[in-house]
Amino acid sequence: MNKGFDKATFKRTVVDNVKNMFRRTIDEATPQQVFQAVAYAVKDVIIDEWIATHKEYEKKDAKTVYYLSMEFLMGRALGNNIINICAREEVKEVLDELGFDLNVIEDQEPDAALGNGGLGRLAACFLDSLATLGYPAYGCGIRYRYGMFKQKIENGFQVEVPDDWLKDGNPFEIRRPEYATEVKFGGYVRIENRDGRNRFIQEGYQSVMAVPYDLPVIGYGNNVVNTLRIWDAQPINTFNLDSFDRGDYQKAVEQENLAKTIVEVLYPNDNHYAGKELRLKQQYFFISASVQRAVKKYKEKHEDIRNFSDKVVFQLNDTHPTVTIPELMRILLDEEGLTWDEAWAVTTRTCAYTNHTIMSEALEKWPIELFSRLLPRIYQIVEEINRRFIEQIQSRYPGNYEKVKKMAIIYDGQVKMAYMAIAASFSVNGVARLHTEILKNEELKDFYQMMPEKFNNKTNGITQRRFLLHGNPLLADWVTDKIGDEWITDLPHIEKLAIYASDYKCQQEFMNIKYQNKIRLAKYIKEHNGVDVDPRSIFDVQVKRLHEYKRQLMNILHVMYLYNQLKDNPNMDMVPRTFIFGAKAAAGYKRAKLTIKLINSVADVINNDKTINGRLKVVFIEDYRVSNAELIFAAADVSEQISTASKEASGTSNMKFMLNGALTLGTMDGANVEIVEEVGADRAFIFGMSSDEVIRYENNGGYNPMEIFNNDQDIRRVLMQLINGYFSPQDPELFRDIYNSLLNTKSSDRADTYFILKDFRSYAEAHKKVDRAYRDEAWWAESAILNVSHCGKFTSDRTIEEYVRDIWHLSKVQVEM
Ligand code: 26W
C-alpha cells in the first residue's frame, strides 16, 4: 500500500488525460487510449521523485555507475511501475470504478524489446535492483526504432515481422534535446603542432546528432527513480537551401541517411558476431554520446579530470561497448590535454568489463580496414594501446612470440575487442562460478596468468519484483501470507517458506496455485495456438533463444522418442506431459529456424494423433518475449536447462523457473551448478556430461556419433524419421540438414558438435525420473516449495551488491519526499 497515493486525484488525472489526449470521454475510450492515459498519470505520480532523486545525487556528489549496454530488454513498464510505487491495488480499483480491467489495460502496452535475450534482460533486472537498492546509476543504450522482431509462425516456419514499438508513442519517455551531442564518423586525422604539442584534428567527417530520451527506472517503495538513457540519432543540420553547392548537398543527404539508419534496428543475433559495419556505427554512436555526456557532467562540478574515476565507473556489458576505452582516451588526450600516461591511468580506473559467453562465434573482431575507415582517430589510439600492451607482454614473457600472437589486441588484420576490454579494464568478470573458472582456465588463460587480480565472478540474478510479484500474483500473495513481505526487497527471507514444504495443507495450496497458473497459460495457448492442453499434465518448458548449444533439438528428439514408445505400446504407463517451447531464431540462422519447423511439425502430428489419448502434447508459443514469459514461468512444472555443459555462461531463465517453483531438469552448466547447490541435487534432475568431459572431448577433436547411431536402435529410429518424411510427408528431405549435423562431418566441421546423441540416453533417463517423481504428489509439492524457498541467492539485488562491493564502490542514497 502506498500511503501518499491519492486515488481520487489519480482517477481525475486518468479521465482528464483521456480528454486532453484523445478528445474523448472515458466511456468512449479504447483500451489503448486508457493505457496511455494511465501511463501518463503514473508518470505524474513519479515525476517529483525522479527530479528529487537526481537532485539528491547532485547534492551528495555521488559516485555513479554507467551501465553501458547495446541491449535493455525492459518488457512492459506500466505493471512493473505501479508495483514499484506500491499502488497496484489502488490503480486496479480506480480502473474497476471506471469500468476497465487492469490486466487488459496492461496488455495494450507493447514490450520494450530492445534486446535479444539473456544479456539484455540481465541489464533490465540490474536497473531494477540498482534503483531499489538506492544506488546512483544510469543505463545507457540505443533507442532503436525497431526492437527485436516479432515472430509469427506460418506453416510451422518462423517469419520475422518488424516491431514498430513506438507507433503509439512511448508515454514514459522524456526527450532531452538539451543534452544532444555530436558524434563523428569517417574522414581523416590532421596532425597540427601547437605549442610543442601534437593536436589531432578529425576532418572531412560525417556526423550525427545524438539526442537522449530518458526513461524512469523506479525503485521499489523507496522514492528512488533512476534513468535509462537511450540515444536517438538526428541529422546534424537540415538542408540549407541558400548556400548549398553540389558537395554540401550530397553530404547533407548522406548525413540524413546516416542518422536514419544508425538507430533503425536492433541486430537480432544472439551469440553470433556478423561483422556488420552498421553495428560498429551503432556501438560508437551510443558510446561516444554517453562518454561525452559523462565527462561534461563531471566537469560541471569538478576541476581535475584526473580524478574522474572517483565519481564515475563504466561497466561494459560484454564487448559491445568496448570503444568506450579509446573514446575516453580520445577525450582525455585531445580535448582535456592529458598526457598518455595520465589518460591511461584514468581510463583503466574507470572501465570494467563483463564477459557473457565463451562461444567463439560471438567474439567481436573488426577488420582493421573497416575500423580505421569509420573511426580514424579512435583507431590511432587503439594502435597505441596495442603497441604498449605488446611491450608489456614482451617484458613479462621475453622472447615468447607465441604470447604476443595469442594476446595482441591487433593481430592478423583484426581488432580484437575482448582483448582490448581486458587490457584496459580494472575488473573482468564472468557471470556464474563455473563460467568464470572456464574463462580463467581455458578461454582467457593467458590473460588470467598475466593479470589474475582483475578476474572475478559475479553470478547473475533476476528481479523477484517482476518475475514473482508481478508475474505470479497468486504465489506472491501466498508467500507474503505465510512469511510476510520482506522477500520483496530481501529475497533470502523466502527461506522461511521451507518449514511449510512438508506440510500437507500448504502443499495443497501451493499445487492449487500452480494449477490456476497452468489454467491461465492453457487459456493463452488456446487463444494464440488454437491447441487444447490439459492443465493436469506436466508442463515441461524450454523457453530461451534458439541456439544449437542450448539443444532444443535434443528436447524435440526426445519427444519423438517418447512418441515412438507410445505408438509401440499404447498402454504405456506415463503421466500426461505437455512439452512447451518458446524461442526466436536469429533471422539468418538456418539450422535454428529449421529446428523451429521441426518442433512445429512434430507438434502437428502428435497433437492430432487420437490414438495417444492426449497423453503427449507439444506447443510452440509464438513470439516468446518478456510479457508472455511471466505467464510461462508461473505455470511451469519442469524447467529445461539442457545446454551442452560449459557452453551456457549462466542462464537466467533457470532462476526465474526456480523462483516460481519449477524443478530443474538440466546439465551441470552455468548457474545450474549453483542452483543445485542451493536446493540440493535430490530436488533436481541432473544428467549428461560434465563441462570437463566436454572440454576434454573438444580438445581431442570430438567424438564419433556414428557408434551411437549404429548401436542404439531407438536413437537410430528417431534420426531416420528426420529423413523418411515421418513428420514432413510432403517434403521428406526437409530435415536432412539436421540429420547431417548430427552424423555427418561434412555438414559441420565436427558431427554432433553439441553432444546431443552422447547425452541422449542420460537425458531420457532424467525424464523417466520426472515421470516417476510427479506421481508422488507430496514429494513433488515439497520439492517445488523447496525450490522457491532456496532461490534467495538468485536475486539480482545480491548480484548488484557484489558489483558494488567489489567493483563499483558506490554509496546508497536516500530520497526523502
Ligand atoms: C556480437 C553478437 C552477440 C550478441 C549477443 C554476441 C554475444 C551476445 C550475448 C553475449 C549473448 C548473451 O545474451 N549471452 C547470455 O548472457 C546471459 C547474461 O549473462 C547469460 O545468462 C547467458 O548464459 C548468456 O548466453
From TrEMBL:
Post-translational modification N6-(pyridoxal phosphate)lysine, affected residues: K656
Q: Keyword annotations for this protein?
A: Allosteric enzyme, Carbohydrate metabolism, Glycosyltransferase, Pyridoxal phosphate, Transferase
- Organism (species): [Clostridium] asparagiforme DSM 15981
Which top EC class is given? transferase
UniProt name for this protein: Alpha-1,4 glucan phosphorylase
Is the keyword Magnesium in the record? no
- The EC code for this enzyme is 2.4.1.1
Domain of life of the organism encoding this protein? Bacteria
Q: Which PANTHER family does this chain map to?
A: GLYCOGEN PHOSPHORYLASE, GLYCOGEN PHOSPHORYLASE, LIVER FORM
What is its cofactor?
Answer: pyridoxal 5'-phosphate
Q: Which GO terms describe its cellular component?
A: cytoplasm
Q: Which GO terms describe its biological process?
A: glycogen catabolic process
Q: Which family, according to the similarity comment?
A: Belongs to the glycogen phosphorylase family.
Task: Sum up the protein's function in the record's words.
Answer: Allosteric enzyme that catalyzes the rate-limiting step in glycogen catabolism, the phosphorolytic cleavage of glycogen to produce glucose-1-phosphate, and plays a central role in maintaining cellular and organismal glucose homeostasis.
Q: Which GO terms describe its molecular function?
A: glycogen phosphorylase activity; pyridoxal phosphate binding
